[in-house]
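Inputs:
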Amino acid sequence: MTQDIRLCEVGPRDGLQMAKGMMPAADKSRWIAQLAQAGLREIEVGSFVSPKLVPQMADTGTVLSAALAIEGLTVCALACNLRGAIAAYEAGAHVLAFPISVSETHSHANVGKGTDAQVDMMASIVDWVRAQSRPMRIDAAVATAFGCSLEGVVPVSRVAAVAQAVACTGVDEIALADTVGYAHPAQVRDAVRATQDAIGTRLTKLHLHDTMGLGLANVLAGLNEGIRAFDSCLGGLGGCPFAPGASGNIVTEDLVFMLESMGYRTGVDLSRLLAAREVLAQALPSEPLRSGVAAAGIPKTFQPH
Amino acid sequence: MTQDIRLCEVGPRDGLQMAKGMMPAADKSRWIAQLAQAGLREIEVGSFVSPKLVPQMADTGTVLSAALAIEGLTVCALACNLRGAIAAYEAGAHVLAFPISVSETHSHANVGKGTDAQVDMMASIVDWVRAQSRPMRIDAAVATAFGCSLEGVVPVSRVAAVAQAVACTGVDEIALADTVGYAHPAQVRDAVRATQDAIGTRLTKLHLHDTMGLGLANVLAGLNEGIRAFDSCLGGLGGCPFAPGASGNIVTEDLVFMLESMGYRTGVDLSRLLAAREVLAQALPSEPLRSGVAAAGIPKTFQPH
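Outputs:
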């Protein structure tokens, strides 16, 4: 099994959409350039959603355009409906990320329609994208896959069933997302196994939050089941809409430190990655940036692979 | 293999010894009583070391005496030499915790003698304790077992060799301690396996820090190798003497959340545990208290075992 790990930095999208302040497009672009220079090859640069609902993402077109100029970078954008997917395609995105909540209640709250309707939307998007001249990778994120702040427990069997329905639409890849950060390692193991049983290697990635402090333990559980792709966010930005003060996405710095220490290859230079915090700290001075490695410094025992 | 986990709360010792402020003995005792009420059955209440070097521990005798009145509580105390061990015995401690650094440099810095000399000291203590009328459990902590801020890499073979020498002194239990928080999950697996090969089930516990954010991932790696006892600290107090701003011990609240979620039994009531933060926050208002579970609240999906 490969020791190469594909990381997708979701800070410019999942991180910034929860931030209190607004980061100007020029600062976002400088930040994305630094992340790419540190070796991150896949970055979710924004989302094509209503600027009224998520004003932080209103400049996604501008930011995406600048990111496309970075050689070797895979540029991802999120959309929640066909209109957004078309906008992402027309802006030149290499990858479309599309969320589908297992929790009906969360699905209605997040995208205004139920799970089945959102699967149908995914199918329409796949049909539309495949009919275009330029290819665009389509990644679906099966959201609230480890519990929901509105519905509570989300059964593993339901996660696998939704993943199977999503796979039938013809998407390229599927991720399981711990949208609210409730996952624990035994649950990650069970959900990944059930989903692999249903859709095999179409399940490629985990999107994890560190809400309860279990983020990297959940990564380890995923690694043990063969998962080799993860979303993460510099400084662990992102927060949690249902819990003020809660932490956000898993921390890219600490994730890279763990993976490289364990002998996995991420392609990321940890020192350069830490340097990329500076532009973020300057642009959003009131936003707390987490990371054990950043606080303690890279230990002298660190030997990247 | 048992699903019961033995937790030792080390906050009153490892947590407070790094704190900037002083916590009065009466507050320590109130805190320890609340920890015990939450279901923690083993607490390291202090250390018998020079009050000039560690003034926060000067009242350990008073605190230990109060803790002995708590029914069902196993009361532990740390000492670094025979004099301290005798003091712990005479104070009535149920368990003596004794550190032995694998790193020569750290051993000299921490206890003023090298590793071999500290193993000899351990042997003298075991002889002395076994000659007394009352039994006292003797736990040795093999420190800097996952790297040293002074020496750097600590070879796994050396960890196992020191553990074997310590086992020969006749101690009851041995823990591996990530004193500076450099451990990663693959290293935990390797060090635990090598130590188990050397001393079998005499290796019972891991003492982990969360310096790099990998604490709970390292717990998971230990669980996977059969480890069923862990040290932790409420609020993740403790810091790291070599890195200002770095976090401390693994967080008891998040550890209990992870273990109980996974189906392990800790005996701890998570709500009561969170309530025990209050006396700590009042007594040491300038000390940051970490914990994802405390910040986000116990999720509605939580089902303790």
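Remarks. Residues 115-130 of chain B form the longest helix (16 residues). The radius of gyration of chain B is 18 Å.
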